[in-house]
Known about the structure:
By secondary structure, the protein is mostly helical. The chain is built from 1 helix and no strands. The chain is elongated, with a radius of gyration of 26 Å. The structure holds zinc ion (ZN). Zinc ion (ZN) binds at residues 4, 6-7, 9, 15, 21, 24. Zinc ion binds next to helix 1.
Amino acid sequence: MRVCPFCGLATESPHETQEACIEALQVEISRVREIVARLKEPEEPSGRPALRISGIPPTSGRETDID
Ligand SMILES: [Zn+2]
């Protein structure tokens, strides 16, 4: 399937005018809204924060041989 280079929507032929893009976007939005409404995914207000390990322990024991 092709993609419109202007709005990025999948389309058979690229929209030739901005209005055509907007129209297609509105159709897409209403379609997505329907899908979202059907899914009704429970959204947790406080999502799990991605734990990031900061502070990598320094490697002890140097391996430098100095004469
Ligand atoms: Zn378009």
